[in-house]
Amino acid sequence: MEEETESKVILHGTFMSPYSKRVELALKLKSIPYLFVQEDLQNKSQTLLQHNPVHKKVPVLVHKGKPISESLFIIEYIHETWRNGPKLLPRDPYKRSKVRFWASYIQLHLFDTVMKVVKTEGEKQEKALAEVKEKLSIIEKEGLKEIFSDTDGKPTVTNETMSLVDIVMCTLLSPYKAHEEVLGLKIVDPETVPGVYSWLNAINGTDVVKDLSPPYEQVLEILRSFRQMSLSRS
Ligand SMILES: N[C@@H](CCC(=O)N[C@@H](CS)C(=O)NCC(=O)O)C(=O)O
Q1: Whole-angstrom distance, CA of residue 39 vs CA of residue 54
Q2: What residues does ligand 1 touch, defined as CB less than 6 Å away?
Q3: Ligand 1, atom nearest to 74 Cα
Q4: What is the mean pLDDT of the chain?
Q5: How far is the CA of 45 from the centre of ligand 1 (A)?
Q6: Which CATH superfamily, name and number, covers 6-81?
Q7: What residues does each domain of the chain span?
Q8: CA separation, residue 173 to residues 16, 188, 214, 233 (Å)
């Protein structure tokens, strides 16, 4: 019984957090059973604070009683710990470095900029949108050929092949249609970034993403209220 508790996997996260979603995707891809602890970020649990005393943020994965924080490191931990099932990083070191490079590029250069488009209006929003489009064209021109080197740059994503970089892209822009509807803007234009567009649609076509995505109407609601809250604070 004690052994059972010890090997249990617990994820502290929130329903809305894209970072928690990354870890959930990785656990589901690997078919790892886990207990999800929904945190209230206005009133964080003592367990979360103890497990992530540095950043005090979700997600935190607890495995065999030991906590791991930071979504990208958690995914690497999952990849290294549960060796069977789909791989979240390529076996080949060069390809692996490219997947890490582009996951980190999206995290560092695209994530906050997309958030800025959602949270602002007027000139600030226009500037942020131009920046998002510029980063998406860099991914189109330079990223896809490296991420999908096995298929000549053509994005193919299935439950069996989904990697760290697909997961990061997914949790940022898989609901791009909802973003576009709420904001009344084109963000992922199939004319200018056809590869990125088909990448996102391939991601959205996987069973794991379909299973984890809330209904479209709910995504619209979440985005609208997030936007309104951010605009009223600024
Ligand atoms: N770099 C972290 C970011 C995690 C993060 O920003 N989590 C947010 C929720 S989306 C959080 O816990 N915020 C609570 C706070 O800042 O107090 C990761 O990749 O895991």
Answers
A1: 17
A2: 17, 19, 41, 56-59, 70-72
A3: 20
A4: 95
A5: 14
A6: Glutaredoxin (3.40.30.10)
A7: 6-81, 93-233
A8: 14, 9, 14, 24
pLDDT means per 10 residues in the chain (234 residues)? 64 96 97 97 97 98 97 98 94 97 97 96 98 98 97 96 98 96 98 98 97 95 96 91
Write the residue with the smallest CA distance to atom 1 of ligand 1: 70
State which of 15, 58, 222, 230 you would mutate to test the pocket of ligand 1, scoring each by most atoms of that ligand within 8 A of its C-beta: 58
Sheet holding 9-13, edge to edge: 35-38, 9-13, 60-63, 66-69
Ligand 1 centre distance from Cα of residue 128 (Å)? 21
Q: What is the pLDDT of residues 169-217, one digit of tens each?
A: 999 999 999 999 999 999 999 999 999 999 999 999 999 999 999 999 9
Q: By alpha-carbon position, which residue is closest to atom 15 of ligand 1?
A: 57
Select 93-233's CATH number: 1.10.3720.10, 3.40.50.2300, 3.30.160.160, 1.20.1050.10: 1.20.1050.10
For residue 107, which atom of ligand 1 is closest to its CA?
19
Strands (E) in the chain, as ranges, are 9-13, 35-38, 60-63, 66-69
Rounded Cα distance, 105 and 189, in Å = 20
Q: Compute the distance from residue 115 Cα to the ligand 1 centre, in Å.
A: 14
Position 84 scores a pLDDT of 86
CA 19 / ligand 1 centre spacing (Å): 7
